[in-house]
């Protein structure tokens, strides 16, 4: 199973509302959809290191590794087999201005204006809670063969309020 990360940088917007940095993905899995910065772990890398690297590579933001708060662990199954295990982080420790890359267009979005209809079908089930500060373990079942972003979302299990306190990797 592939191991991946998602990182959700957050800040206070001009009118005091909470904003999250999303990317519009320009290539690869989930192309044309919104998501957080993130991607696959490289050899020898911890999930936290991967989240920092991917956020920098995709949108040019510097996030502080120790200020990444683990918010979720998501398992995506395709036709009954583990396809992707994703570590989800959020952070308020963000430096720099987001810039577009070959991979992604970045955009700060108010958390009550997140475009769930232009995201993976599972996102609306877990991302609102994650953006409100909750923690979650989720399992999401897709069917219909590769690639994952053309398969059908058929079911899920969620467990909220999970502790990741011991997870410093
Ligand atoms: C099935 N439902 C899903 N819901 C929400 N997010 C999902 C997801 N499935 C995959 N993701 C995330 O999408 C990112 C890109 O995936 P990723 O494997 O990196 O694909 P990509 O083709 O871009 O590869 P590169 O990393 O560029 O090599 C990565 O953070 C991964 O966790």
What does the model show?
Its EC number is 3.6.1.56. Belongs to the Nudix hydrolase family. Its cofactor is Mg(2+). The chain has helices at 47-59, 123-131, and strands at 2-12, 18-25, 34-35, 38-40, 62-63, 69-78, 81-91, 94-95, 104-110, 136-143, 152-160. The protein has one domain (2-160): Alpha-Beta Complex (Nucleoside Triphosphate Pyrophosphohydrolase). The model has no long low-confidence stretch (mean pLDDT 96). By secondary structure, the chain is mainly beta. The radius of gyration is 15 Å and the shape is globular. The longest helix is centred in the first third of the chain and has 13 residues, at 47-59. The chain contains 2 helices and 11 strands. Strands 1, 2, 3, 4, 6, 7, 9, 10 and 11 form a 9-stranded mixed sheet that branches. A two-stranded antiparallel ribbon has the order 5-8. It starts with a strand and ends in a 9-residue tail after the last strand. The structure holds N6-Methyladenosine 5'-triphosphate (N6E). N6-Methyladenosine 5'-triphosphate is lined by residues 2, 4-6, 28-30, 35, 38-40, 76, 84, 86, 120, 122-123, 148.
